[in-house]
Amino acid sequence: MTRMPLNESQPILIVEDSDDDFEAVKRAFKAANLHNPIKHVYSGEEALRYLQSGPSPIPGIILLDLNMPGVDGRKTLEIIKQHEELKHIPVVILTTSGDDRDIEACYRLGANTFIQKPVDFDGLIAAIKRLKEYWFEFALLPKDT
Amino acid sequence: MSPHPRQTQSILIIEDSEDDYEATIRALKKTNFHNPVFWCKSGQEALDFLKHSGAHKDKTNPMPGLILLDLNMPGLDGRKTLQQIKENATLKKIPVIVLTTSNDERDIEACYRIGANTYVQKPVSFDGLIEAIKRLKEYWFEIALLPKENGNG
Buried (b) or exposed (e) across B5-22, using 16+ Cβ within 10 A? Predict the structure, then answer.
């Protein structure tokens, strides 16, 4: 049976506390011709509540900011990647930090990729486009069971 | 997009086919990749390379920034190799891209659960393989940030 890369119906979960940053990512998705449903949560706690509620379909990919109040991004990442039902979902860290310690810590916790958020909007569109090409047209993702 | 200035890390290719290794090298050259590339023909050799054990004892090769792992290898199978890398405190941070001919759902999920950073179906054609390697290089060396070779632990 041929497995297609992430298709247009699998939702993307975006964990981002800043409305401005979320709007920018949303616009970048549009500009990159990405039409998947987007689920936006503002915090780590909200993300975990949502994921543990057994959403159907489960997100095909999670974009996770590190700098959030409350349960921070790293803790959220750790919980997802240790959770039997969630650990297989690719998590892309999309954050302003480019600090080597953050990078290393995230990969150690199981982050699938670490991307430093470009500061300019064109840069963000370009990054989102590349993300889309990589995860949606190239990589194979686990099916939503 | 130009490479991030800090992305000087090496790639480790774990691949038993010399033809596929050659194709990978050619693809990397075409994308102007000049960082060091290391090759291990088996899972066991790769683990020795990474842990500086066995045949690679007393060697000082640096930890690679990225690993391309072919699952279809004889001997220590690819999944066990992946597992050993991802369960090792020092090695687990290295992004591992799994390349394999299988597109079986169970294989895909199993690899992600073990900690594969990406699962890629290995193209059957030479040109397809070259294209895949280019995409991997662009993503990991121009978009993503890799862990530093000499990080803590």
Answer: eeeebbbbbbbbeeebbe
